[in-house]
Amino acid sequence: MNYRFRVVCLLLIILLGAGFAAAQGGVLTPGQAVQGVIGTQQPLAFYTFSGAADDQVTLHAISLSAGFRPTISLLSPAQQNLSTSSSDPTSPESPDARLSYRLPQSGVYSVLVGGFNNSQGDFILRLFVRPAAESISLVPGEPVTVSLSAETPARTFSFAASPDGPTMFSAAGTPPDFPFLVEIRSAAGQIVAVFPGLAQAAFVLPPGDGLYVATVSSAAAPGVTGQITVAITSAALALDVPPPATTPEPQPDQPRGETGACTVAPAGGSAVNVRSGPGTNFGIISTLQPGQPQTVIGRQGGWYAISITQGTGWVAAGVVTTAGNCDALPDLAGPPIQATPTYTPTTAGGVQPPAQPTATPTLTPTATIVQPGQPTATPTLTPTAPLATATFTPTQPPFTSTPTQPPPTFTPTTAAPTATFTPSYTPTTPPPPPTAPPDARFNDPLNIPLDSTASTTDFVSYPGGDTEDRVRWDITGMNANSSLSGGRARLILAVSCFGTGTQNLQFFTGGQTYSCGQTIFDSEVTYDSRTGSVVITAVGGQNTYVQWVLTGTATRVN
After folding, report:
1. What SS3 class is residue 254?
2. Is it true that the peptide bond before 175 is cis, omega within 30 degrees of 0?
3. For the CA atoms of 246, 252, 254, 256, what is the dihedral angle to 10 degrees?
C-alpha cells in the first residue's frame, strides 16, 4: 500500500507540475516527464537531448511497477558511455535510479533506460538541467556565509581535496533550525554525498587531488530566509582518526590473499551514502565510491556494517553488490538513536506544577447467568475507565431450576465432502528469447544536418529474427560548390551496442568491418561524397539480441 501510494503521489505531482508525454523513446525536454515500459519486446528505451558544455544534468527514472528497478546510461555525442546508475543516492531504499553528470562538451547526448537484473515494468523519466554557474572557491580555514531562501537560486562552492590527508566539508544554518539541501559532486558531476533537509552537515573526503563542487539550496518554507556557513578543514583536526588496523599474517593452511572476506561495492556507477547507523534516520557520515569495495564486519537487517575512517559505517543492502563469503556475517548492533528531549511546562516563576497521579485501569469481571443444561459462557474482562474501580455484587440469589426432562443428547455427525480439490497447476516452459522483428531491406535513413548531430537505432538478433539491417546516411544543408562556405565538412560516424551478444555484431562500410563501440567513418567530405551506407549484421551466438545506435556528426570545414 505504501509503495502504491508513493507512486500515485509522484504521478500527480509530475503530471500536474510539468508537461507529460507518453512515448517510448524520443527527445527529452528539461522539466518534462516521459513514460516508458521495459519488457520482453522492448528491453531498452532510447532518448536524446541537447546539452551545452559544463551543464549539470540530472536524470531521474521513477519505477511504477513493483519489483522493477530501472537503470540509466548516459552516452556522449560520440556514443561513448559516460555514466551508468541503477540506484538513487538521495533515496537508497527506493527502486528508482538517479544519475547526475557535468557535460564535457556541447552536443546531442543519448540516454538509455533498461531493467536492473532483467526486471521489467513501467517508468517515468525526467531530465533536469542546471546551466553552468559561477562558483565560490573555498579556502581551508576560511568559512564563507551566504543568505538563502526558497526564492533565491542555489549557491555553488568549489574546493579541492588534500593529498596530505582527509578533508572535511561542513555546513551549518543560522538560525540553528534553518534546513537546507547539500549535494557534493566530483569534477565529472557525479554525486558523492547528499544531505537532504538538514540544519548541519559534515562530509569527509579521502586524501587526493580531486576537485569537488557543493551545491547548497534552501529547504525551508517559502518566505523564510536564513544563512548558511560552509567551510573546509583538515579532518585530522576535527576527528579522532584511529590508527590503521594491522593485517594478521595468514596461517600456513590459508594462502595469502585468499581470505574470502565479504565485501560490498556500489551496485551502480554512482557513490552510495554511508550512515552512522542501520537506518535512514541516522546521519550520513561518508560515501562508498564505485570501484572501491569495503570489507563487511557485520550485518543488521537490510544493512551492512563497514569500517571507515570515522569508525563504523552502515550501507543499505539494496544499493550495493556483495562478493566473498557473506553468509556467516555476525549480527552487529547499531548505535542507539538519540532521544528527543521532552518539553515540561512550568508556571510563572519557574515553578513546575505538581505531577498528576497516573490512573491505573481496573479490569472488572462481568458475570453472565445461564440456564442449566446450556453451555456455560466464559466470563469476559472489560476494562473500565481510568480512576474508576468497580466491584461486582450480585443483586439476586443464584437462579436454580430442576429440569423435568433430560436434555437431548447431541451426537455429532461427519458431513460428506461436497467437493474434492484437485491441483490444476501445470508448469509452463519459459518464454523464448526475444528476436528482432523483420523490417525493410533498408532502415530509415540517417539525415545529418550540417553542423549538427543525429542518430538512428534498431535491433538485430541471431539465430532467429532479423539478422541484418542497412542504413544510408546523408548530410543535409551542404553547399554544392566545395570552394564556398559549407561546401566541405568533416563527417564522424560512431556505433554503440546494448543487449545480449554485442560481440557478435559486425558493421561493414567502405570495404572494412568494424565492431561495436568503434568509429566507422571519420573523413572530410564534399557535396558529391556526402552520402554512404553501412550494413549491420548479427553473425553468431546463441540468443543474440542487440540494439545498435548509429550516430553521425557533420561539422563544416570552410
Report:
1. coil
2. yes
3. 50
Cell numbers for 72 = 540509466
CA–CA separation, 164 and 186 (whole Å):
19
For 292, other C-beta atoms within 10 Å of its C-beta total: 12
Split the chain (558 residues) into runs of 10 and give each run's mean pLDDT.
Answer: 48 43 68 88 85 86 92 85 80 82 87 87 90 81 89 84 85 86 78 71 79 84 88 62 42 44 79 81 77 85 81 83 83 64 41 44 42 44 44 46 50 49 50 78 88 85 92 94 92 86 92 90 93 94 87 89
Rg for the chain, CA atoms, rounded: 34
d(CA 89, CA 280): 12
pLDDT of 520 reads: 93
Cα 501 to Cα 435: distance, rounded to the nearest angstrom: 12
- Which CATH number describes the domain made up of 263-323? 2.30.30.40
Strands 446-449 and 468-476: parallel
| Fold adopted by 136-238 | Jelly Rolls (2.60.120)
Q: Name the one residue in this structure whose C-alpha cell is 563504523.
A: 312
Strands (E), 301-400: 303-308, 311-316, 320-323, 363-366, 380-383
Q: Please give the pLDDT value at position 80.
A: 78
User: Strands (DSSP E) along 348-451, which ranges?
Assistant: 363-366, 380-383, 446-449
**Residue 235 pLDDT:** 58
Query: Considering Cα of 454, then 459, then 462, then 463, what sign does the dihedral take?
Result: negative
User: Domain 446-556 belongs to what topology?
Assistant: Jelly Rolls (2.60.120)
Phi-psi region of 25 (alpha: psi -120 to 50; beta: other; left: phi over 0): left
| Residue whose cell numbers read 594478521 | 248
Q: ∠ CA 77-106-158 to the nearest 5 degrees?
A: 115
Q: Is-same-fold flag (136-238; 446-556)?
A: yes
Listed as own residue / partner, the contacts of 28-35 with beta carbons closer than 8 Å and 24 or more positions apart are 28/111, 28/125, 28/127, 29/127, 30/127, 30/128, 30/129, 31/126, 31/127, 31/128, 32/126, 32/127, 33/124, 33/125, 33/126, 34/124, 34/125, 34/126, 35/64, 35/122, 35/123, 35/124, 35/125
* Domain range list for the chain: 2-130, 136-238, 263-323, 446-556
In CATH terms, the fold of domain 2-130 is Jelly Rolls (2.60.120)
Cβ(37)–Cβ(121) under 8 Å?
A: yes
- The Cα 185–Cα 190 span in angstroms is 5
Q: Which strands make up the sheet holding 33-38, listed edge to edge? A: 20-22, 33-38, 121-130, 56-63, 97-102
Residue 505's nearest CA partner among 517, 494, 493 is 517
Q: Which of 369, 367, 373, 379 is nearest to 399 (CA)?
A: 369
Q: Are strands 136-137 and 155-160 parallel, antiparallel or unpaired?
A: parallel
DSSP 8-state symbol, 327:
T
> In the 8-state DSSP scheme, what is residue 142?
B
Phi, psi of 403 (to 5 degrees): -70, 140
Q: Which helix (H) or strand (E) holds 2?
A: helix 2-17
